[in-house]
Amino acid sequence: MVRKVSFLCIVALWAGGSVSAGTAQPLRNVILIGWDGAQREHVEQCLARKELPSLQRLIDQGRYVKIDVEGTTDTKAGWTQILTGYYPEVTGVYSNSRFQPVPAGLSIFERLESNFGKDQFVTVAVIGKKQHCGEINPPRKIRLDEEQKDATATKAKKKNKAPADATATAKQGPKKQAKQATTAQPGAGATPQGTIVEENGVKYRVIPGSPYYGMHNALEIWEFGLMADAKVGARSLELLEQYQDKPFFFFVHFAEVDHAGHQHGENSKEYNDALISNDLWTGKIMAKLQELGLADKTHIYVTADHGFNEDGKNHSFAPYVFLATNNRAVSRDGRRQDVAPTIYEAFGVTAASFQPPLDGLSLTRPDHRPAPKLGPAKKAGQAARTAEATRRPDVVFVPTPQAVVDKMLELAKVTKDDVVYDLGCGDGRIVVTAAKKYGCRAYGFDIDPKRVRESLENVETNGVSHLVTIQQQDIFALDLSPASVVTLYLLPSLNVKLIPQLDKLKPGSRIVSHAFDMKGVAPEAVVNVDGDGYGRTVYFWTTPLKKEP
Question: Which of 4, 253, 430, 526 could, after both became Cys, cross-link 132 (CB 3.0–4.6 A)?
Fold first, then answer.
């Protein structure tokens, strides 16, 4: 999967003010350190076991706050939100599979360089990942037939050739481009992205540029794909030595936590050891600042782009991360997009004049916003709530056979322009099928948190998180009006209970039900289907509903 659990620790270094005093006077340096894929609960458990002494020392100097993620819990979405302070509606970066280059001038790197002057200020990025965070791929168009030939050739090469060194580097000034990394990145996947187009009878895959394609040009140093914490840490120490005499902003991204989670799982020894490794190198960076006389002129922020599914190997719904800092002015819990405004404020940069206005709010200021909506889409609402359901499920989950799923969507004549709502989504197979087969937006709702987790994993596995939203909701409290297709596998009495909500659908909307009719409403079609060797029935209605006398 092209998904990275990127947990970034933000270390802000600012020379010119006392960090420990929490003064409002602007500092000189800020370093943003990423512990890619670090889950908040696991980090807190490590702190309780005294396994993260460097992080604890940072917290003792300042603050530890909880950060909840609004938006997709993956790497591209996460680091873009952190490094800009904007929702994806502004940046165009929704997930690892739905993205574009961030519009010019919106990143923290570009704005700091513009504010302080390129000759007077240094920006640096040292990034462990080689996909989803740091890569600087331009927009491109690839012939499908050539792509398939290349894939075949690559497979043949892998059988006979050892992987090359995993470092890719881009540098500003006297820049040179190092060779691209070829070592596989855990969790990154290899599924081609982009849109298929046909020109003069030839099919092409059009792939947008990576989010970082434009912003990387603003920096003195942009290095990615180092993979190992030791390489990221050692290079960061070298660059601190090199640029100690100028004000700077460093982005230091450690990737081993994310990689260990994808390979071994969140509760594994390897994942825990990777957190300890991140802490070790964070401590070495702090020690280097002390050695250089910059410690009392520096803000350090440690945070993550997303967490990890509990005891899982992915982060389909992992919105719980943290921020640790020696900035005592930080006063509250916050959201992913609040990191950039906090850093701007520390530097004394007036963000209120930015256009478009930032979506985040400095963590030093009171927050009167509504509660965060956690999950894959800000406007779609909360993707999954906490483990408590508001009430018990109305039905026992029985999966709909795939043949019946296909017939339901076929009968509803689903197209890419539809919005499908599945009420009582179970394991998510109906919404996943709708997204994969027809390319439409689809929303699954279930009151059972176990079903929500299964659905989210199914969405993740099938690579349709950019199209599918899963929410833990009471279906009888839903506004169904945004839907053009509604799918059901409930009970006759529950179908009837939904009639007042179904009456509010737009004219021409379609409703399909597996197995059960809707008393008092005449179906327009009743179709028999062979599902798993048993005869199944599908009922079909359109709106406005035709009520029986």
Answer: 4
Of 164-168, 244-248, 480-484, 498-502, which range is least confident?
164-168
CB 18 within 8 A of CB 41: no
What is the rounded end-to-end Cα distance, in angstroms, of the chain? 53
Residue 22 has pLDDT above 60, yes or no: no
Q: Which two tokens stand for residue 30?
A: 């800020």
Range(s) of the domain holding residue 101: 29-353
CA 470 – CA 245 distance, rounded (Å)? 50
Those residues whose C-beta lies under 8 Å from the C-beta of residue 129, and which sit 6 or more positions away, are 4, 6, 36, 75, 135, 185, 188, 224, 225, 227, 253, 255, 258
Q: In this predicted structure, what is the pLDDT of residue 27?
A: 67
By DSSP bridging, strand 29-35 and strand 248-254 are parallel
Omega before 366 within 30 of 0, i.e. cis = no
User: Could you please report the per-residue DSSP string of 362-380?
Assistant: -TTS---SPPP--BS-TTT
Q: Tell me how far apart the alpha carbons of residues 237 and 284 are, in angstroms, rounded to a whole number.
A: 8
Residue 19 has pLDDT above 80, yes or no: no
Taking the CA atoms of residue 105, residue 131, residue 68 and residue 280 in that order, the dihedral angle to the nearest 10 degrees is -110
Cβ-proximal residues to 442 (8 Å cutoff; 6+ apart), any chain:
419, 420, 421, 422, 430, 431, 432, 434, 435, 467, 468, 469
Say yes or no: 447 and 506 in one domain: yes
Read off the tokens for 430: 């109906």
If asked whether residues 329 and 414 sit together in one domain, one would say no
Strand locations in 9-137 (E): 29-35, 63-68, 122-127
**Beta carbons of 214 and 101 less than 8 angstroms apart:** yes
Query: What single-letter amino acid sits at 311?
Result: D
Mean pLDDT for 312-318 is 91
Of residues 412 and 207, more confidence is placed in 412
d(CA 524, CA 506): 17
Question: How many other C-beta atoms can be found within 10 angstroms of the C-beta atom of residue 123?
Answer: 27
How many domains would you assign to the chain?
A: 2
Q: What's the CATH number where 83 sits?
A: 3.40.720.10
Q: What is the DSSP letter of 143?
A: E
Are 336 and 415 found together in one domain?
Answer: no
Reported as a single tens digit per residue, the pLDDT across 260-310 is 999 999 999 999 999 999 999 999 999 999 999 999 999 999 999 999 998
Q: What is the pLDDT of residues 119-129, one digit of tens each?
A: 999 999 999 99
The one-letter amino acid at 459 = V
Q: What Cα–Cα distance (Å) separates residue 360 from each residue in 101, 105, 345?
A: 20, 17, 12
* DSSP structure string for 299-313: EEEEE-S----TTSS
pLDDT value of position 109:
97
Listed residues 331, 353, 375: the one ending a domain: 353
Q: Output the pLDDT for position 87.
A: 94
